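Many introductory courses stop at the sequence. We go one step further.
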Amino acid sequence: MAKGRRSSATGSRLFWSSECLPFVVPFVPPPVGGEPYTNLPYWTHAVAGWATFGIGFLYWLVWAYILPQIGGYTIARTEDDN
């Protein structure tokens, strides 16, 4: 095991909570009069970002798992000597 300092459970939970905050805040409605758009919902940019992550995940899933099973091949890591 690597030597070093360990964090407390409370410190770890606090850090984890602070890391989750940016994922939750875009879905909290703005105060009245503070809407960023006039014709779009305030959560449009958050949904577009999550959709981008989702499309990337689905692409990876098809490329790395589904196509090799259908095609009967495996994806292997190789090293290049260049």
